[in-house]
Amino acid sequence: MPIYRYKILTADGLQKNGSILADDYKCAYDVLHAKNFQPLEIKKVYFISKKVTLEDILTFFLHISFQLKCGAGINEAIESFADFYENDVLNAALLNISNFLKKGESIGEAFEKCNFIFDNVIIGLLKSAEDTGNTTEIISNIMNFLKLQTDWKNNVKRAIAYPIFITIVALLVLALSIGILGPQIISLLQSNNTEEIPMLTLFTINILPQIFKALFLALAILSFCFCNQAGRDFLFRIVLKIPKIGKLIIKISLWQFCKILHIALDAKLDFMQALDLAIGTIKLNLLKRELENIRCNIINGYKISESFFGGKLISKEILMAIYVGEEGNELVNSFNHISENQYKEILFDIKSLGQILSIGLTISTGLIFVFILCSLFYPIYSYVEVVGV
Fold it and tell me: Which residues pair with 17 in a beta bridge?
């Protein structure tokens, strides 16, 4: 169904912009007019360039949570958001969801049909809202979860921003040094009948550019691998073997698992339902297999804490918190405590990793730059020394 972008005049005399799904121009006009809006401009959207970001989804759930607490219905809240928010892709998806809800489909089913925007975590939690009837509370918890997710992702971006900047600047300086200074120095030495050009200089001018080209080719291949799921999975397995980065990825997945388990238990789902929901949202196969083994142990009659003690990726602190929570019948608080501690550790690890990368790249690029300068200017220094003699 096409998307139409509109400009309307409300009953209060205010101008508003938005997007709407409609079969044609007349349908879009009729829908807006039925809402007591005076359409001023309606245009069909032929090209959509704006993507839906995590921040867009967070803004949507902030709006929905506020509207539900004010007594609005879910459909009313969705449509009011689509009326004012300027993202055609998200608005079109939300209007589709609204249409599915009007046809009698459940919230989870309606959102699942837009799984290209809303991930398994959101869809799973919304489905749990249907089982418990705590839609307002679940949506509020989704909002809080997305806030935390946005926070650590922004921390990752800040942590790698400086290393990436250093790398780009270094590569540009090195390319200019080799591409401009190198040929000029060779030309100078040859014009002055220098008998022998040092091997170090020849390596810098002839071999080093080939190494850089190979590195750029490798980056291009890696970028191509990200275009398909098999390539992403292969690269992900390699990244997991990098000590600090692999541990951080596992810790983030564990935090997600514990946080979703806490949200589901807090929404009064029984433990097995909450566990199935949390496991279903995990994308890291290594952790997912371990959690599925834990699930099997619980089904076979083992206590929850005993089942988790068999896991290799679960830390001692997490195991102890689960044990204490089970003994005191406070698993909800235990998983809340675990997720909060895990989150603090994640933020600390991200900051530490960013500092290590910054220092490491600064030192390594500095050494390479010094090496190139020495290899290029050493022959000139030798030549001047000989001429001076």
Answer: 7
